Each structure stands twice: as C-alpha cells, then as structure tokens.
Amino acid sequence: MKTNSLFTHLATETQAGHGAGKPIDKAIKKTADMWAFAAHWTGMKVK
C-alpha cells in the first residue's frame, strides 16, 4: 500500500436541496464525519 501525505475526503449529498442553510441533523453528521476522518488519519484514539 502506497502512503501519501495528502489525504482527500469526498462526500456526496444525494438528497441536497436549494434551500438556505442546512438541517441540524445534516450539520451534526458532517461534523462527526470530519472528526472521524481526522481521527482515522492522525491515529487519534477515543476513550
């Protein structure tokens, strides 16, 4: 497996609309997803 110092996280929203803002559940999911990605690639351990 080749390692690379540049990591990419691509997320696609299939139920996106044209309204202003984002529902709170989607905002929470996005934040949790970003933290999970960062934790995975930095080796962060959660207790």
Topology:
Blueprint: H1 24-42
Distance between the amino and carboxyl termini: 28 Å
Helix/strand order: H
Radius of gyration, taken over Cα atoms and rounded to an integer in Å: 14 Å
- Topology, number of strands: 0
| SS-derived structural category | mainly alpha
The percentage of residues in β strands lies in under 5%
Describe this structure in words.
By secondary structure, the protein is mainly alpha-helical. The chain has one helix and no strands. The model has no long low-confidence stretch (mean pLDDT 76).
Descriptors:
40% helix; mainly alpha
Put the structure in a nutshell.
The chain has one helix spanning 24-42. By secondary structure, the protein is mainly α. The mean pLDDT is 76.
